[in-house]
Specification:
single chain, MetI-like fold, 14 helices, disordered C terminus, mainly alpha
């Protein structure tokens, strides 16, 4: 019986490894198939930006441009209906200060909610979370009236200033990270005479860098793609960002889809580049629940 049992173990182990390998292959196959749902539209965007106009809607579909027209990008950038450099500058003027403000303000508020003791802290945090339940549409009219009374309508300040007052979602996410850090670090810093600002800036903030980077990516992408905010608060078309510039390029002229796709791909490339450069720490910021040693 012992010899029979011993002979069955290698067979059982081999069968288990085969089942596990088959499961891994199946999972990767399913994930690969699902990834095509994103890859195919992006591939179509790329090849359309390189096609002559007559091939965009050709039947049968043209899956590779012939000839490849790199001049489409030059024509898109120099088209009078799409002043790319000005639109790009406007998008950067909006997205960069807003992202800096969101990262700083949300980090400071989250640190206060997580690591400082003061009267009414839990009530204020509950109110902050409750503000997430308000639809953005409900806030449009009172926010517009407030900015109108402050004289901010027509300037980038109406888009940038709110980010310096924090975002409920970002505050909640960063607070959860601050709560995972050992309290011994804070206690030791207090013993050495450090105040709360120094503890936050020199000790706590570097330890939650992945979470802060996640906030940076989320906010930058949101500002870069924002359409309603600039359309509502900016009255001068020379201040419009790329998101509105693309729409104007499509509606003010007969749509030249090959140039439209070239402009769209150019607007998308910075976001893809930022994500891939910050991919590792961005994913850590989303998934980590404890301190990384």
């Amino acid at each position: 019986m012992t010899a029979i049992s011993a002979s069955r173990k290698p067979r059982q182990n081999q069968a288990w490894h085969l089942r596990r390998r088959a499961a891994v292959i199946l999972i990767h196959g399913v994930l690969g198939a699902l990834s095509l749902l994103w890859v195919i539209p992006f591939y179509w965007l790329v090849i359309t930006s390189l096609k002559p106009l007559e091939q965009v809607f050709s039947v049968p579909l043209t899956w590779f441009p012939d000839p490849v027209q790199w001049i489409n990008y030059i024509q898109a950038f120099t088209h009078p209906g799409f002043p790319f450099l000005r639109l790009l500058a406007n998008s950067m003027i909006y997205a960069v200060p807003s992202t800096v403000g969101a990262a700083l303000s949300c980090s400071i508020v989250a640190y206060a909610f997580a690591r400082m003791e003061f009267w009414g802290r839990d009530v204020l945090f509950s109110i902050t979370l409750a503000s997430m339940m308000l639809p953005g549409v409900v806030q449009l009219v009172p926010t517009y009236l407030l900015f109108h009374r402050l004289g901010l309508i027509g300037s980038f300040a109406a888009l940038i200033v709110p980010s310096y007052f924090g975002s409920a979602f970002y505050i909640f996410m960063l607070r959860q990270f601050f709560l995972t850090l050992p309290w011994e670090l804070t206690d030791a810093a207090h013993v050495d005479g450090a105040n709360d600002w120094r503890i936050f800036w020199q000790i706590m903030l570097p330890l939650i860098k992945p979470a802060v980077l996640a906030v940076v990516v989320f906010n930058f992408v949101g500002c870069w793609n924002d359409f309603m905010g600039p359309l509502l608060y900016l009255q001068d078309s020379t201040k419009y960002p790329l998101s509105i510039g693309l729409y104007a390029f499509q509606t003010q002229h007969e749509t030249q889809w090959h140039l439209m796709m070239a402009a769209t791909l150019t607007v998308t490339v910075p976001l893809i580049t930022i994500f891939f450069l910050a991919q590792r720490q961005f994913i850590e910021g989303i998934t980590l629940t404890g301190i990384k040693v």
